[in-house]
Amino acid sequence: MTAVILPPLMLVAVLVGLWQLYNARQTATDVFNKSLLAAALAVANDVTISGGDALSGRTRDILSDTSGGPVFYHVYAPDGVIVAGYATPPVGIPIPSEEASAPNYFDASYLGSQVHGVRLQNRTQIDGFAGVFTTTVWQDASVRAAFVRDLLLRSLLAITGLIAALGLIVWFGVRIGLRPLTDLEAAIASRNSDELTPIQRAVPTEVGGIVATLNRLFGQVTRSMAAQSEFISNAAHQLRNPIAGVLSLAEAVDAAPTMEESRKRSRDLLDAARETANLSQQLLLLERAKSISPNSAKEAFDLDMAFQAWADEFTQTKTDHPVIRFVSDGHLGAMTGDETMIREALRNLVDNALRHGGPQTTYIDVEATQAGGDVLFAVTDDGRGLTSGEIAAARERFRTVSATSGSGLGVSIVEAVARGHDGALELVPRPRGLRVELRLPVGQPCKS
């Protein structure tokens, strides 16, 4: 956290330092220009009053120590004759084309040194000579540079001290402010994979949301692990009996006294193996169906084509009694979802109707219609049907509601497919038979 805060502070310090450098130069220029102008005005006034013979004591004091260093001067008459001051002028002073009424500041060279000065022109009369007299005052530029360095150094020292103090405050503040978080991190790190109870320790208000989210996550993981453990336990229990039956029948085949008896027991063994394989397949389908989510089911497909393919597949693998009919208006359009698992959901509904409808079942209708932004799959039969109590039992895993064998997972698989697509499953009892409705959102349209 400190490493995140300090670099911006250092950047601000650098920008402030650059601004202060510019400001110091401007301040120094203003101060020196005003000092030189005051000296020039004092010299011009004294020369006018004394006729160039003498300067007042106050003016000599100004010249001897203006802004930290001596000031040089000279005054020229209109004819170019020096009236007062130093005989050697600075080199490189710009000469105005005409009489200048305003002060003319300049940078020039004097005896090998760089100087900064000001030139004034004023119309006056000295010892009978009348005209424009020129007063020039200059000072070594190093004096101004030393002033800038001193001003900048003091500013930088103040900024550095301020940044250092602020850095220490931030460092201590971050350490103190993050102490509850580090304690929380240590408490979480000390947990093992089996300890998923909610965090009960007191935490700052700022991280209360994080802890609440962690507690919700712990709860979800706990429930998921409990459901997984329950499923594994139920699956092991359900597989134990079929596997034991397969082993028993295999031993019976091996111990058959005659070939005819061996063939009979082999058929029973084959049926038991098929039931066990079907149960294993249903368990795998249920696990895959539980992993579906609206974010993962992104397969785009043409629903009319898919529904026709499912109809061809189902009618080819089923007997002619009862009659299986697939009904659609042929304008279902596009759908986004898990096509394979939707097909398996319909297959399970048809299988349930075949297994549990009873011998009185004469037809099974599979309908697909548009219902607003959803597609409604309805599987209807005229078999024995289900009571309200049997409907609740049919939704439970490994529960069957008739004497017919089965895995008891068909409805659970369909419900998992419905939840994974943000859809819904409803079992509707009828005077004769049962109607099962699977409603799924169409999702995003297919891209052609």
Automatic annotation (TrEMBL):
Its EC number is 2.7.13.3. Keywords: Kinase, Membrane, Phosphoprotein, Transferase, Transmembrane, Transmembrane helix. The keyword Membrane applies. GO terms for molecular function: phosphorelay sensor kinase activity. PROSITE patterns: HIS_KIN (PS50109). It catalyses: ATP + protein L-histidine = ADP + protein N-phospho-L-histidine. Residues 234-444 form the Histidine kinase domain. SMART domains: HATPase_c, HisKA. It is an enzyme of class 2 (transferase). The chain crosses the membrane at residues 6-24, 151-174. It holds the Pfam family HATPase_c. It comes from the Bacteria. InterPro entries: 2CSK_N, HATPase_dom, His_kinase_dom, HisK_dim/P_dom, TCS_sensor_his_kinase. This is histidine kinase. It comes from Roseobacter insulae.
